[in-house]
Amino acid sequence: MSNTFASKTAQKLVGTIQVPGDKSISHRALMLGALAQGETLIEGLLPGEDPCSTAACLRQLGAEISPIDSTLVRVRGVGLGNFQESDDILNAGNSGTTMRLMLGLLSAQPGLFSCMTGDASLRSRPMDRVLKPLAAMGAEIWGREGGRRAPLAIRGKALRAFHYHSPIASAQVKSAILLAGLLIDGETSVTEPTRSRDHSERMLTAFGAKVIQDGYTATIQGPTQLLGQRVIVPGDISSAAFWLVAASIVPDSELYLRNVGLNPTRTGVLDVLLEMGANIAIENQRETCGEIVGDLRVRSAALKGCTIGGDLIPRLVDEIPILAVAACAAQGKTVIRDAAELRVKESDRLAVVARELGKLGAAIEEFPDGLRILGEQPLAGAEVQSYADHRIAMSLTIAGLIARGTTTIHEPACATVSYPNFFADLERIRTVNL
Ligand code: S3P
Predict the structure, then answer these.
(1) Which atom from ligand 1 is nearest to the alpha carbon of 169?
(2) Residue 87 annotated in active site
(3) Could you tell me if 195 and 314 are in contact, meaning their C-beta atoms sit under 8 angstroms apart?
């Protein structure tokens, strides 16, 4: 792909899209498969850069991970506590989930020495949120800036069971602790201020671990040997969100999104879009491998502004950039608060959204923890930057569909982190129907 993508005003978007596999579930399927005894077959794994980073780390630790065909991947696990020491640095690339979850696993296996690094974005992101609770459990982890940032060195030890009251609702923090808890004798638990996505709890249970969810507390009873499973990964609602917004704001559009994960800890984007007046219907709702899945039909609609904050934020934390694009097209004002976490994602997403959508003519005011967006300002094509952040690249591309003229997005290829076929899917639903 070239260094820029030209996003042009769209007349309409029509067609059917199978969004790629859920990124969070893909990471967990690979990790639990690698830890389990026996074989795990994963159907619909996201072939994006982030899960590839997880797979590469797990291979270095002794797991066998091999594609069987374009939809099925086989993992031969090493069994609990049997990771081999890697003779090289483990590289998590752009993936915070890979690094934070692996820290839980690596620090709890006695005798295992590991080093982890990532790309420039990941090396700038806070790791102390995971290091602190793991250190309280006895973990030995060293890193730059007093352990705040990668590269990190980890010496695995037998950790102590612990109850952690997390100051933030973060699935990565919770999962790192629960994964460490798999190897720990006794009950390890995490209480969050509000519930973050619960894919780890669901998948650990499916692999045979003893996990209890009680309110905002998740508890694991260790040690437990996991057994290989067949996992079916649903489509990623965070990827579907780009099309939900695109079809809502481009006139005369209708898209059918098949097989989208509808785990209630992830569906905040649906709740907000429906409140904004979107025309979205859920069809064929069903359950697959402990996760709710459905098909979504979305048609263009006149949107109105809304308020987003509080407990909703963890349920749509990755969708705020694309919801900001929806807010630009909506009538009235949209206010987003309690979203300071966005400042430590793959980029500072509050600053980048305000600045780059601003270049297109959007009226956005930035707060320390959110944004205020005044809708219905006419957007006009301009040169914009993704800052190598996949969700920013895709959000700006969708904004370009309603901007006059051409919007040129720099560094668009980072979309492959979570959605390798994003631009191909866009061309397909446009070219067929223009
Ligand atoms: C993820 C959790 C979220 C999300 C990230 C993936 C996960 O982060 O932003 O893209 O797979 O656990 P936090 O819940 O840690 O904020």
Answers:
(1) 14
(2) no
(3) yes
What CATH number corresponds to the domain at position 215? 3.65.10.10
152 and 246 in a single domain? The answer is no
Single-letter amino acid, residue 158 = A
Q: What are the tokens at 85? A: 């020491």
Choosing from 50, 198, 295, 318, the catalytic residue is: 318
| Residue position matching structure tokens 């707060």 | 367
Write the DSSP symbol of residue 85: P
428 pLDDT above the threshold of 60? yes
Q: Which pLDDT tens digit goes with each residue over 232-272?
A: 999 999 999 999 999 999 999 999 999 999 999 999 999 99
Q: How far apart are CA 95 and CA 121, in angstroms?
A: 9
- The SS3 call for residue 116 is strand
Closest ligand 1 atom, residue 341 Cα: 16
Task: Decide if pLDDT at 434 tops 50.
Answer: no
**340 shares a domain with 216:** no
| Structure tokens that stand for 118 in this block | 């990532």
Q: What is the mean pLDDT of residues 305-332?
A: 98
Contact 297, 208 (CB under 8 A): no
